[in-house]
Design brief:
Length: 393
């Protein structure tokens, strides 16, 4: 395999764009600015445009076969347009280096989580798992994993800030005590190490993961409850959610039940009523009246594929799989370590959680932006597939 390099240096975006990216983890609605980049979809190579068209078309066609087609078409159009805006943002940025400002906003989120949990619940709150006012525990852990990747892969970054930033991100990851992000960290880092990093860098990542496991099992973290939870084998009821999702899909196998309409079908989750993050729940903060009426929109099937199958049926899932597979294959060809880590790490956690469902607090949007980065690079990939004589290389 060869690594394809861009023909010319990629110019950085304006400084205000970097500030916008940095502030997005703190105020997620800033992602709406991505709609201004939709015109960049025209820059895609022909093959990528065809894959993207197939994805978008299947989402809309699937909506026609749902129990409420008019509502589903509107919701599918809105979500598909949002996804296209995220992909277009990746095309606009052109290089994952320009996603680095995310780290500064993420570090503020981590500091906020520690300050809020300690000030409202003390050390008992940390032992019950570190939380944040609007980041769910799993999301907080996954954002910490993304931050670790940004820190480790930031070439020429000074150790004076990388070490304390890495300690804060790693501490947040451990205190969140979520096993899905651990799966993402191991798989994403492993794939990045295999395909894009030097042998030395791969050994460093491997040694770090082994050290973490030893600290949890035999070291000072042996009595820290969130750390012990990382190695637990319990499914915490996910198997019941998966059964509900499969049953919902059986009700409408061709087009699914429609975007954002799975809540009442996920009875294991829906019966508990509206709940905010565990941290806010422990502080006796109830759901606002508006969220109590719409909370079913945000319930997920705890599996990427099952959730898409439940909402969009066979038709919509076929489009997702085509786009998903295309991005993964191109990522392997391009060997960008951050892109590989995000795409494969999120795929791994996608077995037990839904991390590509948009809109979200920013990690799902990040996944679609990285897909956009890969689709822009797909021209080199398709050039490699066909040689000058039009035969398969």
């Amino acid at each position: 395999m060869t690594v394809h390099q861009p023909e010319a240096p990629v110019s950085p975006p304006p400084r205000w764009v970097s500030w916008l990216i940095a502030l997005t983890p703190i105020f997620p609605p800033l992602y709406l600015a991505a709609f201004a980049t939709l015109g960049h979809l025209r820059r895609l190579p022909l093959t990528a445009r065809r894959v993207l068209f197939f994805f978008a078309a299947t989402q809309l066609i699937a909506a026609l076969f749902t129990p409420q087609p008019l509502l589903s078409v509107g919701l599918a159009a809105g979500r598909t347009l949002f996804i296209l805006a995220m992909i277009a943002t990746g095309i606009y940025l052109r290089d994952s280096r320009y996603l680095r400002p995310l780290l500064w906003g993420q570090l503020i989120i981590f500091a906020t989580a520690w300050i809020y949990t300690l000030s409202t619940q003390g050390w008992a709150g940390i032992q019950a798992r570190l939380g944040h006012p609007y980041y769910y525990v799993v999301g907080l852990g996954l954002v910490a994993v993304v931050a670790l990747w940004l820190i480790v892969f930031w070439q020429r970054g000074s150790l004076y800030w990388r070490i304390p930033a890495g300690i804060l991100a790693a501490s947040t990851f451990i205190a969140a005590g979520s096993r899905g992000p651990l799966l993402a960290l191991v798989v994403g880092s492993g794939v990045a190490g295999i395909f894009s990093l030097s042998r030395r860098s791969a050994l460093v990542i491997g040694a770090s993961l082994i050290t973490l496991i030893l600290l949890i099992t035999t070291g000072p973290l042996n009595s820290f409850e969130p750390a012990q939870r990382l190695l637990s084998e319990q499914t915490t009821g996910r198997e019941y959610v998966w059964k509900d999702a499969i049953a919902a899909w059986h009700n409408s196998p061709v087009g699914g039940i429609g975007p954002f309409q799975g809540g009442p079908y996920l009875t294991y989750l829906f019966k508990d009523g509206c709940q905010l993050t565990p941290t806010l729940t422990r502080n006796d903060i109830p759901c606002p009246p508006l969220l109590q009426k719409t909370y079913g929109f945000w319930l997920v099937a705890h599996n990427n594929l099952l959730h898409w199958l439940m909402e969009t049926g066979i038709i919509g899932t076929a489009g997702l799989v085509a786009l998903y597979g295309f991005a993964l294959i191109v990522a392997i060809r391009q060997r960008n370590h951050f892109n590989l880590a995000v795409l494969f790490g999120f795929s791994a956690i996608g077995i037990v959680d839904v991390v590509i469902f948009v809109p979200d607090v920013h990690f799902a949007e990040l996944w679609w932006i990285v897909v956009g980065l890969q689709m822009l690079d797909s021209e080199n990939f398709t050039d490699h597939i066909l040689n000058d004589n039009g035969r398969v290389a």
